[in-house]
Amino acid sequence: MDMLKRSQSLLSVLVAVALVCVSSCKDPYHYDDREPDWLGASIYDYLKSHRDSVGNPDYTYFVRIIDSCNYKDVLNRTGSKTMFVCKDKSFEEYFRNNDEGVTCFEDFTRSMLNRIMEYSMVNDANLVEMLSYEAGYVKGMVMRRETSLDPLDMLDFEKESLPAKNPYFAPYRAKGIYVLNDNTSPRLIHILQELVDVHNITDDDFAVLFNGLQHQKGDGFVLNHKIIERDITCKNGYIHVLDGLLLPRENMATFIRKNSNLTVFNSLMDRFSAPYPDVNRSNTYRQLHPDFPLEDTIYVRRYFASLSQGGGNTLTPAGASVPESERLILDPGWNGYERNGNGRNDMAAIFVPNDQAMQEYFSPTGEGSYLYDRYHVWDSVPNDIACKFINAHMKYSFLTSLPSKFIGLKNEQWDEIGVRKEHVQEARVTTNGAVYVTNKVYPPVEYASVMAPVLVGLNTRVFNKGLADLNFDIYLKSMETVYTNGYVPPYTFIVPSDEGISNYIYPSSMGRPYHEVLDFVYNEDNNAVEAIRYQIDESDPGARVRVGSEDSRMSGSTITALMNEMLDYHIIIGELKPEQEYYQTKGMGYVRVQMTDDNNVKIWGGGNMEQNQTWGGSSGAWNDPAYSPNLTKFLNFRNGKTYMVDKVLQQPFNSVYKTLRAHTEFTDFLNACSDISDPNKLIFVSSIKNTSMIDQNVKFYIAYHYTLYVPNNAAMAKAYAAGLPTWTQINATSDQAKKRQMTAKMVDFLRYHFQDNSVFIKGYQVADTTYETSLINSATGKFYTLNVTQDGENLILVPATSFNTGQEVPYSINKRGSIKVEKSHNLYNLMARDLYFSGANISNVSASLSDYSARTTVHELDTFLTVIKAPSLTFNYTATNKNYLIVLATTAVDDNGDGVVYNGTAANGNQVIIEKGIKYYWGSNPANVITIPSTTALSPGDVDPMYGRKLFYYKDGTKDFNFNTGRAESDSLLYVQAYAVSKYYENGTTTPTNATDEHLQAASRVICVNTNTGSIVK
Q1: Where are the beta strands (DSSP E) in 246-347?
Q2: What tens digit of pLDDT does each residue of 677-699 get?
């Protein structure tokens, strides 16, 4: 008979068994006395009669416990029990080494004997193999079982041990009370091979859980005791022998409370517990113990928790509702812990930092220094914060929290805990879960992230409200940067004090006669951020005049929008570095930073620098301290760093137009951009659809960031000397077609200096990086590009160069000379911002924030940028009468190849097209291509008087221009192609780099003519 059949057979025989659940040494057991004759001894008889190898009884102590607790008859009768016992030598070992002061059997109290007896007895008959089987014989699922132990056997009287600062226990602290640490029976935990296999519990997991205890394949354990003899079959159940005395296990809360090394964590957790009077338990106990005073009551210690006995414990003993922010996610004192009905299959887990870890964390130099600065002692930390801390260390499932699963393990808020096996100093498997004692604190992600100081600060309430209302807390608590190395750079969070969020420029007011600034304040009465408006005079910003009455404040959607933009501008994705000065913020703006180390940092927004230059005193320097934020504290967190400053960072409000206008070196470029009359080609506009602007914005901008390379006045003079038409020349041209082409030439020149993406000197370094400009390559339909290198000291540009096809040359083989941004005048890294407001008239804009903004970095150039592209041309044909069977003509070269010069000539030194003409061959084999350049002599009848272009034709009976050359007599097909050659080589210069360099040139498509019929061959 195999094991499964034996178990089934026995269970069918023992079907009439009842349960013993009353805590008493009286016999509550009344069973049928019939016993199958084929069964062996009862459990009691077996233990009493068994002898060791030399004939000595070896279960005498366990038999004495059975007798003392009046369980002899129970275990002598037919029934269905599983007993976990140990031999006398295990008792002797216990007497030599225990913490209860028990040195011999007589030292056991009656309560202790009951606990041992009832905790060792399970009211089912199970082979070891079957202990882990779930209903339906699904193996490897069950790990916890109810025992016969009654909670009343765990009753304690407490007085001094009651929580010292818990108001719910305060009324009982002087006199003391009888306390049940839970009113459900402690569970027995067994870890058997089937469970190990199903849940992938490793031997290393086992060693951590049981503090070095070794597990081998096939072993079975009840808690930390190995099963050394199994499946001893008796007529009323099974006996399994352990290698040590099995004592009832406490629950997680009790273990934590009684561990002298976990007092800090326990003091936080104890805040969320309370004593609840239990009349039924009191009456039951009084029946068993008549001497129990009538005036005394038994109280059950319970924790405020969303998951507890009865579905949850969310009311105080007085019936008041416990705030959700002060509820633990699970009750650590609930012996019968279960979730979703899996009380037999799993339990909970808690990671508990030891006292040293908690004190190191909560110290002036610890990770929680911001908490220390705010509260000074753990006892002063508010309940809602303390609750978050406890919950961040709790797990619903023991089986998903095994040491082998620590990497990537998330808490029940779905944030990664960060625990590692080496952090565990001790572990304890209790009746309702595992406690891992660690040397690290695992704060809730909010308090491990860069936003932590804002959440608890008395002087950061404006930002704190913004974080919560605008969901920045969700963004800033991301820990991917910590646990997925390299996936997300760490955050830099710049936090101004509440007092420092003042003189904040009111955006739309910058386009009105009177400018305004805002002071932001937190209104504690209605839990809202509001702003006080002040009108200022640019010449005397200190003389502020309040807008509205003394009690009027801005609130609502306008302030919400401003807070959103403000927070966006104070978050940097990445770390600050001494060698870098410019950083992009979350909202795509840029800030300037100068630092030597984390404690010596100066940070400016573009608006701070503008305020300093405008208002900051006689120097007018951008770094005047009057409006520059000063560092007050630096903090390190798991996902980045927080820099506390005394002033808010302000975004720039000078548009590109205003920035150019402010510097005389840019006058000629600004004029070139401003004098465009064609409405379809404008660079600057004062409105777009239903939007308004502070002054003028770049027409083709969207909500993005850009770089503008501005040729200074001397560079513009060079461009005009090279043939760039001036607006005076363009406007004086009466030929409208030519005027349009000249206008396009100028606009193309200007747009080639606008680039996507902001690049700063001493910003993010880039090497050989390609960025698009705003100029479209008509040959490809794509934007022309610039190749950019920023090495920390210089910004180096290489304009694109094109081959005959119009395609740009990859940077790796681009041979053009480089151009450096001019630094000598300090006109580089200028921050500009084009704002777009809802409403056609900015004076009617009631909201403060723009619909969107485009940010631009402005750099000075001492030369100009040119595309240097291959010439483009078209080649037309027409069928005519018998005198001119076919006419083939090259059109004028619309773009003569350099991206700047229009219609240059040899006379003015600006001729770019050095050759154009016709190439042709006869027949299908183009072995002998004949080139007829435009310099070939012509007779007067060979020039079209209207266009001044060469005609190539086939006449009746005559073949001009040696069209017979290379022709076989039988050939009748003529292949013809037009071409044009630029003076520039493929390297973008007029000087070849080596002998293999070729001129940029363009060629038309080939046209095939049947000279016998005069028709075009398709």
Answers
A1: 273-277, 298-303
A2: 999 999 999 888 778 888 999 99
| pTM for this predicted structure | 0.80
The whole-angstrom separation of Cα 793 and Cα 108 is: 81
Alpha carbons 728 and 720: distance in angstroms, whole number: 11
Do the Cβ atoms of 566 and 856 come closer than 8 Å?
no
Asked if pLDDT for residue 775 goes beyond 90, the answer is yes
Per the structure block, which two tokens stand in for 665? 């070196």
Q: In this predicted model, which residue has the larger pLDDT, 477 or 486?
A: 477
Q: How far is CA 304 from the centre of its chain?
A: 32
For residue 774, the model assigns a pLDDT of: 96
**Would you place residue 9 in the very low, low, confident or very high pLDDT band (cuts 50, 70, 90)?**
very low
Cα dihedral 75→77→78→82 (10° resolution): 0
Distance (Å, whole) CA 453 – CA 450: 7
List strand residue ranges (DSSP E) for 15-91, in order.
81-86
Give the confidence band of 179 by pLDDT, cuts at 50, 70, 90.
very high
Rounded to whole angstroms, the Cα distance separating 593 from 341 reads 57
pLDDT band at 1013 (very low <50, low <70, confident <90, very high): low
Task: Provide the Cα torsion 822, 827, 831, 832; round to 10°.
Answer: -100
**What is the rounded distance in angstroms from the CA atom of residue 352 to the CA atom of residue 358?**
9
DSSP labels for 892-946? P-SB-SSSS-SS--TTTT---EEEEEEEEEESS-TTS-EEEETTS---GGGB-TT
Q: What is the pLDDT of residue 841?
A: 67
477: tokens are 């608590």
Instruction: Write out the two tokens for 962.
Output: 């040696």
Assign 251 to helix, strand or coil: coil
Burial 984-998, CB ≥16 within 10 A → b, else e: bbbbbbeeeeeeeee
Q: How far is it, in rounded angstroms, from Cα 603 to Cα 82?
A: 72
CA-nearest of 413, 419, 416 to 396 is 413
713-721 and 667-674 are packed helices; what angle lies between their axes, rounded to 10 degrees?
Answer: 60
Closest CA to 129 of 120, 143, 119, 139: 139
For residue 354, give every residue at least 6 positions away whose Cβ sits within 8 Å of its Cβ, in sequence order, or none.
Answer: 261, 262, 425, 437, 438, 439
Check residues 851 and 197 and name the one with the higher pLDDT: 197
Which position has the higher pLDDT, 355 or 806? 355
Question: Pairing relation of β-strands 221-222 and 225-234?
Answer: antiparallel
Quote the strand ranges of 497-613, DSSP E: 504-505, 515-523, 528-537, 540-546, 571-573, 582-584, 590-597, 600-605
pLDDT average, residue stretch 491-496: 96
**Residue 292 DSSP symbol:** S
Least Cα distance to 13 among 73, 77, 80 occurs for 80
* CB neighbour burial string for 385-412, b if at least 16 within 10 angstroms, e if fewer: bbbbbbbbbbbbbbbebbbebbeebebe
pLDDT above 50: residue 634 = yes
Confidence of residue 946 (pLDDT cuts 50, 70, 90): very low
Distance CA 820, CA 818 (A): 7
**Residue 155 and residue 282: Cα distance in Å, rounded?**
11
Tracing tokens 């951008």 back to the chain, one arrives at 622
Q: At 601, phi and psi to the nearest 5?
A: -135, 135
Whether the Cβ atoms of residue 879 and residue 1014 lie closer than 8 Å to each other? yes
**DSSP 8-state class, residue 263:** H
Q: What number of other Cβ atoms are within 10 A of residue 171's Cβ?
A: 10
pLDDT of residue 1018: 67
User: 67-71, 226-230, 952-956, 972-976: which has the minimum mean pLDDT?
Assistant: 952-956
Average pLDDT of the residues in 940-959: 39
Integer Cα distance of 869 and 782 in angstroms: 14
Reported as type and span, the H/E element at residue 133 is none
More confident residue, 293 or 221: 221
